[in-house]
Amino acid sequence: MSTESHEFLARQPAAVDSAFAVLEAVARLGPGVTARQLTEALPMSRASVYRIIKHLVGNEYLVRTPDLRGFVIGERVRALSWPTAVDPLVSSARDSSGSGSGSGSGSGSGPGPGQ
């Protein structure tokens, strides 16, 4: 492996951490947070924040607000969190209804008509 490749691989975890820091800041600061607000809230250079924002927007992890002034969490982040967020809710509902996890007619699999 070349020295250049090794240096790139050594930087990757930091880049991933930085991207997650930007996503977490957008979630914490709320919909419509501006790039400037993100640069003020994060301990990284302005250039790094803007580069990460550009990458996250390009990959739909962040989406620009309709007025193009700010950002919101994108659908790709929501898609990643959906199975994790739903499973505990479904398990909790199933446990509280006493349906258990056995196979049956599926009567405990969720709300039906009129429920």
Structural key phrases:
WH-like_DNA-bd_sf, 115 residues, 4 helices, Tscrpt_reg_IclR_N, two-stranded antiparallel sheet, Arc Repressor Mutant, subunit A, IclR helix-turn-helix domain-containing protein, disordered C terminus, DNA binding, DNA-binding transcription factor activity
Question: What features would you describe in this structure?
Answer:
It is a single chain. This protein has 115 residues and is mainly α. It has a domain at 3-76: Winged helix-like DNA-binding domain superfamily/Winged helix DNA-binding domain (Arc Repressor Mutant, subunit A). It is 61% helix and 5% strand. The chain has a two-stranded antiparallel sheet with strand order 1-2. A hairpin with a 6-residue loop joins strand 1 (62-64) and strand 2. The longest helix is centred in the first third of the chain and has 27 residues, at 3-29. It is extended and about 55 Å long. Mean pLDDT is 81; it is low at 102-115. Residues 90-115 are annotated as: Disordered.
SSE blueprint:
Blueprint: H1 3-29, H2 35-41, H3 46-58, E1 62-64, E2 71-73, H4 75-97
Antiparallel strand pairs: 1-2
Helix pairs in contact: 2-3
In short:
The protein is mainly α and 115 residues long.
**pLDDT under 50 segments (min length 5)?**
102-115
- Quantity of strands, as a count: 2
**Structural class, judged by helices and strands?**
mainly alpha
Mean pLDDT: 81
CATH topology of one domain: Arc Repressor Mutant, subunit A
Give the amount of beta strand, in percent: 5-15%
Shape: extended
Radius of gyration (Å): 21 Å
Q: What share of residues is helical?
A: 55-70%
Query: How far apart are the termini?
Result: 61 Å
Major sheet details: 2 strands, antiparallel
GO molecular function: DNA binding; DNA-binding transcription factor activity
InterPro entries: Tscrpt_reg_IclR_N (IPR005471), WH-like_DNA-bd_sf (IPR036388), WH_DNA-bd_sf (IPR036390)
Protein name: IclR helix-turn-helix domain-containing protein
Pfam family, one: HTH_IclR
